[in-house]
Write a structure and sequence with these properties.
InterPro entries: DUF3500. The chain has 392 residues and is of the alpha+beta class. It is built from 14 helices and 15 strands. About 1% of the residues have low confidence.
């Protein structure tokens, strides 16, 4: 859906892409105009058409590492407001509320860890350490922007005045569940509970088809690869950071966290191969589900595509309303189906890849990602654009 071609997209979707791109350009321009000469080099990068800029654009993270750009905490109040206005243009209302809630959870996580974790900086868990970076100039034929920090990565590409890509889109939560006065905060509750309801509805034969592994893998399998391919297995934590730490003790800390996560899952290299991403996908297909189960699968997909601006979310809803389309969607599960126990699931068709895991910190630390197997970062559209330029 993110790479729809001229002549194949409904008019409403094409108009929505243009409207979203215009809103992004206005917000990005306002933010850039508010920055000082010292701040601009961090915020503004070369066009995605430049090889070095493209290499940087494809380096995305969801760990508490430096994501690249200008951090929220290093901006004044007005600049912060303008930055968040840009972030909101790339999300639905619910998506924006979820992202900002996850940012605020850094304060809760800091307390949970006794304010001890530092990651080589003054404050290890910092709700101001979310970076915004713009590639190219807003309004150019090709430009992009990225917003990311711990448990958030939003990636958007605009070509010819249209928003053509909104993936990879990563949202996590740590803690995944925390108590409020008179209630509970669970930013990813819908994504977890809908999938659990679906897997619990499967009969013995269906569950056999859906089960990837009896125990859950300790992280999403696609990791932060710029492209996902057949046979990819889970990346280790050491590879999910921007470079290595100057302090060897921090490198040992990451190694230790990774070892403990692996020990908790009990996986060996052979186990990782069992849950590798495959094309065609593993799991039970939509055609093998009953009507109630198909409804749950549709809803599960919408909880990810619903992160995008409403016009795009609506287009995905229409797409997956087709029975033929849903027939080709596969659902896979690993781990326990009991609430509060480690688990992992995957939803995949020829284009969309969705992953969710809640395994770490005694199954109270969740990761979720929505990817496009053919057009993450809008690479297919960008390739066509380059080819067109070459032949002019």
């Amino acid at each position: 859906m993110t790479g729809d071609r001229e002549g194949t997209v409904p008019d409403a979707l094409a108009a929505g892409r243009e409207k979203a791109a215009a809103a992004m350009a206005d917000a990005a321009t306002a933010w850039l105009n508010s920055l000082s000469e010292d701040e601009l080099p961090l915020a503004a990068y070369d066009s995605p058409l430049h090889p070095d800029a493209e290499a940087e654009r494809l380096r995305w993270f969801y760990t508490p590492t430096e994501h690249g750009g200008l951090a929220v905490r290093d901006q004044n109040a007005r600049q912060q407001g303008l930055a968040m206005r840009l972030v909101a243009t790339g999300l639905s209302i619910a998506g924006y509320a979820t992202v900002t809630t996850v940012m605020g959870l850094e304060n809760v996580l800091d307390q949970l860890e006794g304010w001890r974790v530092h990651w080589g900086r003054q404050r290890g868990r910092d709700p101001g350490l979310y970076w915004l970076r713009i590639f190219g100039r807003p309004g150019d034929r090709v430009w992009a922007w990225r917003f990311g920090g711990h448990h958030i990565s939003l990636n958007n590409l605009v070509v010819a005045g249209r928003l053509v890509s909104t993936t990879p889109c990563f949202i996590g939560a740590d803690p995944a569940t925390t108590e409020l006065i008179g209630g509970t905060l669970r930013p990813l509750q819908g994504s977890e509970e809908t999938a659990r309801q679906l897997v619990r509805s499967l009969d013995t034969g269906q569950l056999h088809s859906a089960l990837l592994h009896p125990s859950a893998v300790s992280d999403i399998v696609s990791g932060n690869r710029p492209r996902v391919g057949h046979g990819d297995t889970m990346m280790h934590m050491q590879d999910l950071w921007r470079g290595r730490f100057a302090d060897p003790e921090l490198d040992r800390l990451v190694d230790d966290i990774d070892r403990r996560a692996e020990a908790g899952s009990g996986y060996t290299e052979n186990d990782h191969a069992r849950v590798a991403i495959t094309i065609p996908p593993k799991g039970i297909s939509g055609r093998d589900l009953n009507n109630e189960q198909r409804h749950l699968l549709r809803r599960l997909v919408s909880l990810y595509t619903g992160r995008a601006p409403e016009f795009l979310a609506d287009a995905y809803g229409t797409h997956y309303a087709s029975d033929t389309v849903l027939d080709a969607v596969h659902f896979g599960w690993a781990g326990s189906t009991d609430a509060g126990e480690p688990h992992y699931y995957r939803v995949q068709d020829s284009r969309v890849l969705i992953e969710y895991d809640n395994t770490q910190r005694y199954a109270n630390h969740a990761h979720s990602v929505w990817r496009d197997l053919t057009s993450d970062f809008g690479l297919d559209v960008l390739a066509e654009h380059r080819a067109h330029i070459a032949h002019e």
